[in-house]
Amino acid sequence: MVVSSIKKHFEVPLNSYSAKKEKEETHFFFESTMKLAILLIGVYGCLALYDPSSYTDRQCGSDMPNLWLDVVAVVDNSKGMTLNMLTGVATVLVSIFNLVANIGINPNNPRSTRIGLITYNENATLNADLNAYQSMDDLFSGVFGSLSAVSSSRLSYLSNGLETARVLLKNQSFGTPRDHYRKVVIVFAASYYKGSSEWDPIPAAQSLKDDGVIVMTVASVWDATTEFMNDLASISSPGLVFDISAQNDTEMIKSAVMMANCYCPNAYIQYRELFEDKSSTPYGSCLHPNNVSTSWKASQLNCRNRKAYLATEFTQHKHDFIVESVTSTTGFHPPLSYHIGLNQVLGKWVWDQPQGLPQIPLQSYSDWNPMYPIQSSSMNGVENFQNGQMTGWQNIDQLKVSTNYICESYACDTDNYCDANGNI
């Protein structure tokens, strides 16, 4: 049996952290918490909703009080974790969610966040299921109460903690009225077994990610090595590994949690920094290529029936992203052709917007095909049309030219709650 070698690998001498180091940790967490409190007042005290007239594409919402997620914290409490570090983990965990307006379930407001807590060492313990904390006071007392002592076990099997998180989400989130809520697992690890055995955490983490769960990892040691950070990166979703002792990482975790709350309903493609990398920085807008041929005007009405609008192309980046999106969508064939939101009103080119909002005048960027736009009182709609290797704008009659079209809508995020059908 490999238990003896595993024990040897994870045995941590009781004097591995000196009294000086313990004092440094305590000072660090106190100082970090104070800085975070000041930063949060500055950042979240001046929220502004998206203004399309800025001629920028919408960013993901950053209204932390209206966060709506199901979150499971998985915390190492083996002897690899010092008591001061464990207290620091509790402080960081509470700080991440201290501005959320609704902890638990609020029947009058679906924008709420549930938080479960699991600790692990040799075994995993469910300290709080997703319905245990129904207020910030519950969260504060529950987290600090559960993370008040280090286990006597020197073994650290993260795989057990991740499996317990999977079962919790399966029983209390998936297949429930909160099935459409994004699910996040945050791992706080000081050490864990790694290797090819039943305790290898990578398969357990991959199972969560395959189910659509976002996995974040936080190195919870004083001086995390590059090797340990790389190990945690193999468990986390891309780019979501943090170091609890690094400056501003608590704020970065908070930003990552809000980003996890930014997503698009099924059939929509989230606009992001890199089309080929789904983990690249997302924008707060969603694109829906429609392979049904219809006129520009009918396309606009169809988008509005979905509480959307014909897509904007404020930049070359957005134009190129849409080209890549339709190229990979069934029903779009070369030469590509599809309606976008540019149209002419009273002699001015403007971009379609959600119903009730003013359309946005065309500004500096343009991508007209050669010889376009054609001056005509009837050619007031615009399609993207592929000409050789290039795809650009051509103005067309809004009622007579039928082709595919691209709808755009705001993402589901802290500014916009979406129901189970993806409706804002």
TrEMBL record:
Sequence intervals crossing the membrane: 28-50, 85-105
Domain VWFA: 70-257
Record's keyword annotation contains Membrane: yes
Signal peptide: none
Keyword Membrane: yes
Keywords assigned: Membrane, Transmembrane, Transmembrane helix
Gene3D superfamilies: Mannose-Binding Protein A, subunit A, von Willebrand factor, type A domain
Protein name per the record: VWFA domain-containing protein
Species of provenance: Caenorhabditis tropicalis
